[in-house]
Specification:
Layout (H helix, E strand, L loop, with lengths): L2 H27 L4 H11 L1 H19 L2 H20 L11 H23 L4 H9 L4 H29 L5 E6 L4 H12 L5 E3 L7 H11 L6 E5 L7 H9 L3 E4 L7 H4 L2 H8 L1 H5 L5 E5 L3 H7 L7 E4 L7 E8 L4 E6 L6 E5 L4 H16 L4 H10 L8 E5 L2 E6 L5 H13 L6 E5 L9 H15 L3 E5 L4 H10 L7 E4 L2 H8 L8 E5 L8
Parallel strand pairs: 1-3, 1-4, 2-3, 4-5, 5-6, 6-7, 11-15, 12-13, 12-15, 13-14
Antiparallel strand pairs: 7-8, 8-9, 10-11
Helix pairs in contact: 1-4, 1-5, 3-4, 5-7, 7-9, 8-15, 8-16, 17-18, 18-19
Amino acid sequence: MSIGVHIFSAAWLIYLWATMRYSVQMFQQNSYRTERYNRWLRSTGEWHSRMNIVSLLAAAIFAFTDHTTALAVMGLWMMVIAIAEFSIKYKIPVAYTMRVKRLFTTRLAITATAVAITHIYAADYTLSVMMLMAVDYWTILANLINRPLEALITRWYYNDAKRMLRSMPHLKIIGITGSFGKTSTKHFLYRVLSEKYNVLMTPGNFNTTLGVVRTVREHLKPHHEVFIVEMGAKQRGDIKEICDLVNPEMGIITSVGEMHLETFGSIEGVARTKFELIEALPEGGFGVVNVDSQVAAEHLKTIERKVATYGIDNAEADYRAVDIAYSSQETKFYLDKGTEERSLFATHILGRGNILNILAAIAIADKLGVSLEAERRAVRQIEQIEHRLSLRRNAGITILDDAYNSNPTGAKMALEVLKGFNTEGRRWVLTPGFVEMGSKQYENNREFGRDIAKAEPNGVYVINEVNRKAIVEGLSEGGYPESQLRCVASFSEAMSELQPQLKAGDVMLYENDLPDSFK
Protein backbone atom coordinates (compact mmCIF):
# COMPACT_ATOMS: atom_id res chain seq x y z
CA MET A 1 0.00 0.00 0.00
CA SER A 2 1.06 3.61 -0.64
CA ILE A 3 2.37 6.03 1.94
CA GLY A 4 -0.88 8.04 1.62
CA VAL A 5 -2.95 5.07 2.76
CA HIS A 6 -0.68 4.47 5.76
CA ILE A 7 -0.80 8.17 6.76
CA PHE A 8 -4.57 8.12 6.50
CA SER A 9 -4.93 4.93 8.56
CA ALA A 10 -2.60 6.10 11.35
CA ALA A 11 -4.21 9.54 11.50
CA TRP A 12 -7.68 8.06 11.57
CA LEU A 13 -6.82 5.87 14.56
CA ILE A 14 -5.71 8.94 16.54
CA TYR A 15 -8.65 11.00 15.31
CA LEU A 16 -11.14 8.29 16.23
CA TRP A 17 -9.77 8.04 19.77
CA ALA A 18 -10.16 11.82 20.20
CA THR A 19 -13.71 11.84 18.83
CA MET A 20 -14.63 8.71 20.78
CA ARG A 21 -13.55 10.20 24.09
CA TYR A 22 -15.47 13.41 23.43
CA SER A 23 -18.52 11.58 22.07
CA VAL A 24 -18.75 9.24 25.08
CA GLN A 25 -18.26 12.23 27.39
CA MET A 26 -21.22 14.02 25.79
CA PHE A 27 -23.31 10.84 25.81
CA GLN A 28 -22.67 10.55 29.54
CA GLN A 29 -23.54 14.23 30.14
CA ASN A 30 -26.79 13.65 28.24
CA SER A 31 -27.71 10.93 30.78
CA TYR A 32 -27.06 8.08 28.31
CA ARG A 33 -30.28 9.11 26.53
CA THR A 34 -30.11 8.68 22.75
CA GLU A 35 -32.72 11.36 22.06
CA ARG A 36 -30.82 13.94 24.15
CA TYR A 37 -27.52 13.02 22.54
CA ASN A 38 -29.10 13.35 19.09
CA ARG A 39 -30.43 16.76 20.07
CA TRP A 40 -26.94 17.78 21.14
CA LEU A 41 -25.48 16.53 17.85
CA ARG A 42 -28.02 18.53 15.88
CA SER A 43 -27.40 21.66 17.91
CA THR A 44 -23.61 21.60 17.89
CA GLY A 45 -22.77 20.27 14.43
CA GLU A 46 -19.16 20.65 15.52
CA TRP A 47 -17.60 17.44 14.27
CA HIS A 48 -19.75 17.48 11.15
CA SER A 49 -18.42 20.94 10.28
CA ARG A 50 -14.85 19.75 10.72
CA MET A 51 -15.39 16.65 8.62
CA ASN A 52 -17.16 18.66 5.91
CA ILE A 53 -13.97 20.72 5.67
CA VAL A 54 -11.99 17.48 5.39
CA SER A 55 -14.30 16.14 2.69
CA LEU A 56 -14.29 19.33 0.62
CA LEU A 57 -10.51 19.60 0.87
CA ALA A 58 -10.03 15.98 -0.11
CA ALA A 59 -12.56 16.30 -2.96
CA ALA A 60 -10.70 19.33 -4.36
CA ILE A 61 -7.37 17.48 -4.24
CA PHE A 62 -8.99 14.33 -5.61
CA ALA A 63 -10.14 16.27 -8.68
CA PHE A 64 -6.55 17.08 -9.62
CA THR A 65 -4.52 14.25 -8.10
CA ASP A 66 -4.97 10.58 -7.15
CA HIS A 67 -6.86 8.92 -4.30
CA THR A 68 -3.80 8.32 -2.13
CA THR A 69 -2.83 12.00 -2.13
CA ALA A 70 -6.35 12.95 -1.07
CA LEU A 71 -6.26 10.37 1.72
CA ALA A 72 -2.89 11.65 2.93
CA VAL A 73 -4.22 15.22 3.11
CA MET A 74 -7.31 14.01 4.97
CA GLY A 75 -5.07 12.17 7.40
CA LEU A 76 -2.94 15.22 8.14
CA TRP A 77 -6.04 17.36 8.71
CA MET A 78 -7.48 14.77 11.09
CA MET A 79 -4.22 14.85 13.04
CA VAL A 80 -4.61 18.62 13.49
CA ILE A 81 -8.19 18.15 14.77
CA ALA A 82 -7.16 15.33 17.14
CA ILE A 83 -4.27 17.31 18.65
CA ALA A 84 -6.58 20.28 19.22
CA GLU A 85 -9.11 18.02 20.95
CA PHE A 86 -6.53 16.38 23.23
CA SER A 87 -5.29 19.82 24.34
CA ILE A 88 -8.69 20.81 25.77
CA LYS A 89 -9.22 20.46 29.54
CA TYR A 90 -12.91 20.02 30.19
CA LYS A 91 -14.71 21.37 33.27
CA ILE A 92 -16.74 18.14 33.42
CA PRO A 93 -14.49 15.39 32.04
CA VAL A 94 -15.78 11.92 31.30
CA ALA A 95 -16.25 9.83 34.46
CA TYR A 96 -14.83 6.37 33.86
CA THR A 97 -17.64 4.35 35.43
CA MET A 98 -18.07 0.67 34.64
CA ARG A 99 -20.82 1.56 32.17
CA VAL A 100 -18.53 4.00 30.37
CA LYS A 101 -15.75 1.41 30.26
CA ARG A 102 -18.16 -1.08 28.65
CA LEU A 103 -19.25 1.60 26.19
CA PHE A 104 -15.63 2.36 25.34
CA THR A 105 -14.91 -1.33 24.78
CA THR A 106 -17.79 -1.72 22.35
CA ARG A 107 -16.91 1.50 20.54
CA LEU A 108 -13.31 0.32 20.21
CA ALA A 109 -14.57 -2.89 18.61
CA ILE A 110 -16.67 -0.88 16.15
CA THR A 111 -13.74 1.42 15.47
CA ALA A 112 -11.37 -1.49 14.86
CA THR A 113 -13.83 -3.00 12.40
CA ALA A 114 -14.24 0.31 10.58
CA VAL A 115 -10.49 0.89 10.39
CA ALA A 116 -9.94 -2.62 9.02
CA ILE A 117 -12.59 -2.13 6.34
CA THR A 118 -11.26 1.26 5.37
CA HIS A 119 -7.68 0.01 5.29
CA ILE A 120 -8.69 -2.77 2.91
CA TYR A 121 -10.85 -0.50 0.72
CA ALA A 122 -8.88 2.73 1.20
CA ALA A 123 -8.78 3.27 -2.56
CA ASP A 124 -12.56 3.73 -2.47
CA TYR A 125 -12.69 7.42 -1.55
CA THR A 126 -16.52 7.48 -1.27
CA LEU A 127 -16.59 4.67 1.32
CA SER A 128 -13.87 6.35 3.40
CA VAL A 129 -15.68 9.68 3.54
CA MET A 130 -19.06 8.07 4.30
CA MET A 131 -17.56 6.20 7.24
CA LEU A 132 -15.88 9.37 8.51
CA MET A 133 -19.15 11.28 8.39
CA ALA A 134 -20.86 8.57 10.48
CA VAL A 135 -18.30 8.63 13.31
CA ASP A 136 -20.49 10.77 15.62
CA TYR A 137 -23.16 8.06 15.63
CA TRP A 138 -20.92 5.15 16.56
CA THR A 139 -21.55 5.86 20.25
CA ILE A 140 -25.27 5.41 19.63
CA LEU A 141 -24.56 2.11 17.87
CA ALA A 142 -22.33 0.99 20.75
CA ASN A 143 -25.06 1.87 23.26
CA LEU A 144 -27.61 -0.04 21.19
CA ILE A 145 -25.39 -3.13 21.21
CA ASN A 146 -24.85 -2.82 24.98
CA ARG A 147 -28.47 -2.06 25.83
CA PRO A 148 -29.64 -5.59 26.78
CA LEU A 149 -26.65 -6.07 29.11
CA GLU A 150 -27.02 -2.58 30.61
CA ALA A 151 -30.72 -3.19 31.25
CA LEU A 152 -29.95 -6.38 33.17
CA ILE A 153 -27.20 -4.72 35.23
CA THR A 154 -29.33 -1.65 35.95
CA ARG A 155 -32.32 -3.75 37.04
CA TRP A 156 -30.13 -5.78 39.40
CA TYR A 157 -28.64 -2.63 40.98
CA TYR A 158 -32.12 -1.06 41.22
CA ASN A 159 -33.64 -4.09 42.94
CA ASP A 160 -30.66 -4.34 45.30
CA ALA A 161 -31.11 -0.67 46.32
CA LYS A 162 -34.84 -1.31 46.81
CA ARG A 163 -34.04 -4.26 49.03
CA MET A 164 -31.68 -2.19 51.16
CA LEU A 165 -34.26 0.57 51.60
CA ARG A 166 -36.94 -1.96 52.58
CA SER A 167 -34.60 -3.31 55.25
CA MET A 168 -34.63 0.13 56.95
CA PRO A 169 -38.36 0.84 57.53
CA HIS A 170 -37.66 3.59 60.08
CA LEU A 171 -35.40 5.58 57.74
CA LYS A 172 -36.86 9.06 57.13
CA ILE A 173 -36.50 9.90 53.43
CA ILE A 174 -36.71 13.51 52.21
CA GLY A 175 -36.82 14.44 48.53
CA ILE A 176 -35.67 17.80 47.21
CA THR A 177 -36.34 19.06 43.70
CA GLY A 178 -36.62 22.36 41.88
CA SER A 179 -35.35 24.26 38.87
CA PHE A 180 -32.69 25.83 41.07
CA GLY A 181 -31.66 25.88 44.72
CA LYS A 182 -31.97 22.15 45.33
CA THR A 183 -28.27 21.42 45.88
CA SER A 184 -27.81 24.30 48.34
CA THR A 185 -31.04 23.35 50.13
CA LYS A 186 -29.78 19.77 50.39
CA HIS A 187 -26.56 20.90 52.06
CA PHE A 188 -28.32 23.34 54.40
CA LEU A 189 -30.89 20.72 55.42
CA TYR A 190 -28.12 18.19 56.02
CA ARG A 191 -26.36 20.64 58.35
CA VAL A 192 -29.50 21.52 60.32
CA LEU A 193 -30.77 17.95 60.70
CA SER A 194 -27.30 16.75 61.73
CA GLU A 195 -27.87 18.59 65.01
CA LYS A 196 -30.21 15.75 66.00
CA TYR A 197 -29.93 12.89 63.49
CA ASN A 198 -27.40 10.74 61.66
CA VAL A 199 -27.95 11.97 58.10
CA LEU A 200 -26.95 10.79 54.64
CA MET A 201 -27.43 12.92 51.51
CA THR A 202 -26.84 12.14 47.86
CA PRO A 203 -23.33 13.42 47.05
CA GLY A 204 -22.38 15.94 44.35
CA ASN A 205 -24.77 15.86 41.41
CA PHE A 206 -26.02 12.32 42.06
CA ASN A 207 -29.59 13.43 41.35
CA THR A 208 -30.68 10.84 38.77
CA THR A 209 -32.23 7.44 39.45
CA LEU A 210 -28.92 5.68 38.86
CA GLY A 211 -27.12 8.25 41.02
CA VAL A 212 -29.52 7.56 43.88
CA VAL A 213 -29.15 3.79 43.38
CA ARG A 214 -25.40 4.15 43.60
CA THR A 215 -25.68 6.30 46.76
CA VAL A 216 -27.89 3.71 48.47
CA ARG A 217 -25.66 0.77 47.56
CA GLU A 218 -22.34 2.46 48.36
CA HIS A 219 -23.11 4.85 51.23
CA LEU A 220 -26.35 3.97 53.07
CA LYS A 221 -25.62 2.25 56.42
CA PRO A 222 -27.90 0.80 59.14
CA HIS A 223 -27.03 3.65 61.53
CA HIS A 224 -28.44 6.34 59.21
CA GLU A 225 -31.70 7.86 60.40
CA VAL A 226 -32.41 10.37 57.62
CA PHE A 227 -31.74 10.13 53.87
CA ILE A 228 -31.87 13.38 51.85
CA VAL A 229 -32.34 12.73 48.15
CA GLU A 230 -31.72 15.43 45.55
CA MET A 231 -33.94 14.78 42.53
CA GLY A 232 -33.06 16.22 39.13
CA ALA A 233 -35.25 16.14 36.03
CA LYS A 234 -34.89 16.89 32.36
CA GLN A 235 -38.20 15.40 31.21
CA ARG A 236 -41.59 14.27 32.49
CA GLY A 237 -41.48 11.24 34.77
CA ASP A 238 -37.89 11.70 35.98
CA ILE A 239 -38.96 12.74 39.51
CA LYS A 240 -41.62 10.03 39.72
CA GLU A 241 -39.02 7.42 38.77
CA ILE A 242 -36.80 8.41 41.70
CA CYS A 243 -39.80 8.59 44.05
CA ASP A 244 -40.84 5.07 43.03
CA LEU A 245 -37.40 3.94 44.13
CA VAL A 246 -37.04 5.71 47.50
CA ASN A 247 -40.70 6.41 48.52
CA PRO A 248 -40.08 9.76 50.28
CA GLU A 249 -42.28 10.78 53.18
CA MET A 250 -41.22 14.45 53.00
CA GLY A 251 -40.45 16.67 50.03
CA ILE A 252 -39.27 20.17 49.18
CA ILE A 253 -39.91 22.06 45.93
CA THR A 254 -37.38 24.89 45.84
CA SER A 255 -38.59 26.57 42.64
CA VAL A 256 -40.18 26.18 39.23
CA GLY A 257 -38.34 28.01 36.46
CA GLU A 258 -37.65 27.98 32.75
CA MET A 259 -35.01 25.26 32.79
CA HIS A 260 -34.72 22.48 30.17
CA LEU A 261 -37.66 23.86 28.21
CA GLU A 262 -36.34 22.00 25.16
CA THR A 263 -37.43 18.74 26.79
CA PHE A 264 -40.31 19.92 29.01
CA GLY A 265 -41.94 21.99 26.27
CA SER A 266 -43.45 24.60 28.58
CA ILE A 267 -43.20 26.06 32.07
CA GLU A 268 -46.39 24.14 32.94
CA GLY A 269 -44.57 20.94 31.98
CA VAL A 270 -41.76 21.88 34.35
CA ALA A 271 -44.25 22.51 37.18
CA ARG A 272 -46.06 19.20 36.68
CA THR A 273 -42.75 17.34 36.76
CA LYS A 274 -41.48 19.04 39.93
CA PHE A 275 -44.80 18.41 41.68
CA GLU A 276 -44.47 14.69 40.99
CA LEU A 277 -42.58 14.75 44.30
CA ILE A 278 -45.55 16.15 46.24
CA GLU A 279 -47.92 13.70 44.54
CA ALA A 280 -45.65 10.79 45.56
CA LEU A 281 -45.81 11.62 49.28
CA PRO A 282 -47.89 9.19 51.36
CA GLU A 283 -51.01 10.10 53.29
CA GLY A 284 -49.75 12.19 56.18
CA GLY A 285 -46.56 13.07 54.35
CA PHE A 286 -45.08 16.55 54.63
CA GLY A 287 -44.48 18.78 51.61
CA VAL A 288 -42.73 22.17 51.58
CA VAL A 289 -43.05 24.60 48.64
CA ASN A 290 -41.40 27.94 47.83
CA VAL A 291 -44.29 30.31 47.06
CA ASP A 292 -41.97 33.16 46.06
CA SER A 293 -41.66 31.06 42.92
CA GLN A 294 -44.78 32.34 41.17
CA VAL A 295 -45.26 29.30 38.95
CA ALA A 296 -44.95 26.97 41.96
CA ALA A 297 -47.46 29.07 43.90
CA GLU A 298 -49.94 28.97 41.01
CA HIS A 299 -49.54 25.23 40.47
CA LEU A 300 -50.03 24.65 44.19
CA LYS A 301 -53.60 25.94 43.79
CA THR A 302 -54.39 23.12 41.37
CA ILE A 303 -53.56 20.26 43.75
CA GLU A 304 -55.41 19.10 46.84
CA ARG A 305 -52.37 18.33 48.97
CA LYS A 306 -51.81 20.40 52.12
CA VAL A 307 -48.24 21.65 52.26
CA ALA A 308 -46.15 24.12 54.25
CA THR A 309 -45.04 27.16 52.27
CA TYR A 310 -42.07 29.48 52.57
CA GLY A 311 -40.96 32.76 51.02
CA ILE A 312 -39.71 36.30 51.49
CA ASP A 313 -41.97 38.38 49.27
CA ASN A 314 -45.14 36.29 49.68
CA ALA A 315 -46.83 37.55 52.85
CA GLU A 316 -49.02 34.42 53.04
CA ALA A 317 -46.06 32.02 53.39
CA ASP A 318 -46.06 29.82 56.50
CA TYR A 319 -42.32 30.40 56.89
CA ARG A 320 -41.19 33.89 55.96
CA ALA A 321 -37.91 35.79 56.33
CA VAL A 322 -38.42 39.45 57.27
CA ASP A 323 -36.22 42.43 58.20
CA ILE A 324 -33.27 41.04 56.24
CA ALA A 325 -30.02 42.90 56.94
CA TYR A 326 -26.81 42.37 54.94
CA SER A 327 -23.29 43.21 56.05
CA SER A 328 -19.80 42.28 54.93
CA GLN A 329 -19.63 39.76 57.79
CA GLU A 330 -23.05 38.10 57.85
CA THR A 331 -26.71 38.18 56.91
CA LYS A 332 -29.39 38.49 59.57
CA PHE A 333 -33.14 37.93 59.29
CA TYR A 334 -36.14 37.26 61.47
CA LEU A 335 -38.21 34.12 60.95
CA ASP A 336 -41.93 34.90 60.90
CA LYS A 337 -44.17 31.83 61.32
CA GLY A 338 -47.39 33.78 61.75
CA THR A 339 -47.06 34.16 65.49
CA GLU A 340 -46.28 37.23 67.55
CA GLU A 341 -42.80 36.00 68.42
CA ARG A 342 -40.17 36.18 65.66
CA SER A 343 -36.86 34.32 65.83
CA LEU A 344 -33.57 35.95 64.84
CA PHE A 345 -31.19 33.98 62.60
CA ALA A 346 -27.72 34.88 61.34
CA THR A 347 -25.71 33.26 58.55
CA HIS A 348 -22.52 33.78 56.58
CA ILE A 349 -24.31 32.74 53.37
CA LEU A 350 -25.05 35.42 50.76
CA GLY A 351 -28.21 36.27 48.86
CA ARG A 352 -32.00 36.07 49.07
CA GLY A 353 -31.95 32.74 47.28
CA ASN A 354 -29.93 31.15 50.04
CA ILE A 355 -32.20 32.62 52.71
CA LEU A 356 -35.08 30.87 50.93
CA ASN A 357 -33.10 27.62 50.99
CA ILE A 358 -32.53 28.04 54.74
CA LEU A 359 -36.27 28.56 55.28
CA ALA A 360 -37.01 25.24 53.57
CA ALA A 361 -34.48 23.48 55.80
CA ILE A 362 -36.01 25.03 58.93
CA ALA A 363 -39.50 23.92 57.92
CA ILE A 364 -38.37 20.28 57.67
CA ALA A 365 -36.29 20.58 60.86
CA ASP A 366 -39.34 21.85 62.74
CA LYS A 367 -41.35 18.87 61.54
CA LEU A 368 -38.62 16.49 62.72
CA GLY A 369 -38.36 18.07 66.16
CA VAL A 370 -35.05 19.94 65.92
CA SER A 371 -34.96 22.64 68.59
CA LEU A 372 -34.87 26.35 67.76
CA GLU A 373 -31.49 26.74 69.44
CA ALA A 374 -30.03 23.89 67.39
CA GLU A 375 -31.48 25.39 64.20
CA ARG A 376 -29.94 28.79 64.97
CA ARG A 377 -26.57 27.21 65.72
CA ALA A 378 -26.60 25.17 62.51
CA VAL A 379 -27.67 28.12 60.32
CA ARG A 380 -24.86 30.27 61.73
CA GLN A 381 -22.34 27.51 61.00
CA ILE A 382 -23.53 26.67 57.47
CA GLU A 383 -20.63 26.79 55.04
CA GLN A 384 -20.74 28.18 51.54
CA ILE A 385 -21.41 25.81 48.65
CA GLU A 386 -18.72 26.20 46.01
CA HIS A 387 -19.84 27.92 42.78
CA ARG A 388 -23.29 28.73 44.19
CA LEU A 389 -22.94 32.42 45.06
CA SER A 390 -19.97 31.58 47.23
CA LEU A 391 -17.63 34.35 48.31
CA ARG A 392 -13.86 34.24 48.36
CA ARG A 393 -11.17 36.90 48.52
CA ASN A 394 -7.81 37.00 46.80
CA ALA A 395 -5.31 39.85 47.24
CA GLY A 396 -8.06 42.24 48.28
CA ILE A 397 -10.33 41.30 45.37
CA THR A 398 -13.72 39.76 46.18
CA ILE A 399 -15.09 37.01 43.93
CA LEU A 400 -18.80 36.19 43.98
CA ASP A 401 -18.76 32.75 42.38
CA ASP A 402 -22.20 31.85 41.00
CA ALA A 403 -20.79 29.72 38.19
CA TYR A 404 -23.21 26.80 38.73
CA ASN A 405 -26.28 29.00 38.55
CA SER A 406 -28.08 28.92 35.21
CA ASN A 407 -31.50 30.46 35.71
CA PRO A 408 -32.94 33.99 35.48
CA THR A 409 -34.30 34.17 39.04
CA GLY A 410 -31.04 33.14 40.68
CA ALA A 411 -29.10 35.53 38.44
CA LYS A 412 -31.28 38.46 39.53
CA MET A 413 -30.56 37.59 43.15
CA ALA A 414 -26.82 37.44 42.47
CA LEU A 415 -26.92 40.83 40.73
CA GLU A 416 -28.81 42.20 43.75
CA VAL A 417 -25.96 41.01 46.00
CA LEU A 418 -23.38 42.56 43.65
CA LYS A 419 -25.14 45.93 43.53
CA GLY A 420 -25.59 46.05 47.31
CA PHE A 421 -22.06 44.91 48.09
CA ASN A 422 -20.34 47.38 50.40
CA THR A 423 -17.11 48.29 48.61
CA GLU A 424 -15.21 51.31 47.43
CA GLY A 425 -13.84 49.36 44.46
CA ARG A 426 -15.34 48.58 41.08
CA ARG A 427 -17.86 45.88 40.21
CA TRP A 428 -17.47 43.44 37.31
CA VAL A 429 -19.77 40.83 35.74
CA LEU A 430 -18.48 37.86 33.72
CA THR A 431 -21.18 35.69 32.12
CA PRO A 432 -22.13 33.55 29.11
CA GLY A 433 -25.87 33.74 29.91
CA PHE A 434 -28.37 30.88 30.15
CA VAL A 435 -28.77 27.75 28.01
CA GLU A 436 -31.30 24.92 27.47
CA MET A 437 -34.29 27.28 27.52
CA GLY A 438 -35.82 26.44 24.17
CA SER A 439 -37.78 29.24 22.53
CA LYS A 440 -37.42 31.40 25.66
CA GLN A 441 -33.62 31.43 25.57
CA TYR A 442 -33.17 34.62 23.52
CA GLU A 443 -35.70 36.66 25.48
CA ASN A 444 -34.47 35.42 28.86
CA ASN A 445 -30.90 36.39 28.00
CA ARG A 446 -32.07 39.73 26.66
CA GLU A 447 -33.87 40.36 29.95
CA PHE A 448 -30.71 39.25 31.74
CA GLY A 449 -28.83 41.98 29.89
CA ARG A 450 -31.35 44.56 31.12
CA ASP A 451 -30.95 43.23 34.69
CA ILE A 452 -27.17 43.56 34.45
CA ALA A 453 -27.57 47.17 33.33
CA LYS A 454 -29.76 47.88 36.39
CA ALA A 455 -27.00 46.52 38.67
CA GLU A 456 -24.69 49.21 37.21
CA PRO A 457 -21.39 47.28 37.18
CA ASN A 458 -18.25 49.09 36.08
CA GLY A 459 -17.55 46.47 33.44
CA VAL A 460 -19.25 43.50 31.77
CA TYR A 461 -17.61 40.60 29.93
CA VAL A 462 -20.00 38.58 27.75
CA ILE A 463 -18.36 35.18 27.21
CA ASN A 464 -18.89 32.88 24.21
CA GLU A 465 -21.11 33.53 21.20
CA VAL A 466 -24.09 31.40 22.27
CA ASN A 467 -26.08 34.24 23.90
CA ARG A 468 -23.94 37.23 22.94
CA LYS A 469 -26.44 38.98 20.70
CA ALA A 470 -29.32 38.70 23.19
CA ILE A 471 -27.32 39.88 26.22
CA VAL A 472 -25.75 42.80 24.35
CA GLU A 473 -29.18 43.84 23.07
CA GLY A 474 -30.56 43.79 26.63
CA LEU A 475 -27.60 45.80 27.94
CA SER A 476 -28.17 48.39 25.23
CA GLU A 477 -31.88 48.62 26.03
CA GLY A 478 -30.96 49.10 29.69
CA GLY A 479 -28.75 52.05 28.77
CA TYR A 480 -25.50 50.33 29.66
CA PRO A 481 -22.45 52.18 28.21
CA GLU A 482 -20.98 50.31 25.25
CA SER A 483 -17.50 51.46 26.29
CA GLN A 484 -17.75 49.31 29.45
CA LEU A 485 -18.76 46.15 27.55
CA ARG A 486 -16.38 43.49 26.21
CA CYS A 487 -17.31 40.39 24.20
CA VAL A 488 -14.78 37.55 24.40
CA ALA A 489 -14.58 33.93 23.30
CA SER A 490 -13.75 32.32 26.64
CA PHE A 491 -13.47 32.83 30.37
CA SER A 492 -9.69 32.60 30.19
CA GLU A 493 -9.61 35.39 27.61
CA ALA A 494 -11.82 37.54 29.84
CA MET A 495 -9.52 37.01 32.82
CA SER A 496 -6.36 37.71 30.84
CA GLU A 497 -7.82 41.10 29.86
CA LEU A 498 -9.33 41.89 33.25
CA GLN A 499 -6.51 40.77 35.53
CA PRO A 500 -4.20 43.77 34.88
CA GLN A 501 -7.07 46.18 35.64
CA LEU A 502 -8.10 44.71 38.98
CA LYS A 503 -7.38 46.58 42.20
CA ALA A 504 -7.94 45.88 45.88
CA GLY A 505 -11.60 46.46 46.72
CA ASP A 506 -12.92 45.29 43.35
CA VAL A 507 -15.77 42.74 43.23
CA MET A 508 -16.25 40.20 40.41
CA LEU A 509 -19.42 38.20 39.81
CA TYR A 510 -19.07 34.95 37.86
CA GLU A 511 -22.62 34.29 36.70
CA ASN A 512 -23.14 30.83 35.20
CA ASP A 513 -20.65 28.78 33.27
CA LEU A 514 -21.60 27.10 30.00
CA PRO A 515 -21.50 23.30 30.11
CA ASP A 516 -19.00 21.43 27.94
CA SER A 517 -21.60 20.71 25.29
CA PHE A 518 -21.59 24.41 24.46
CA LYS A 519 -17.80 24.81 24.34
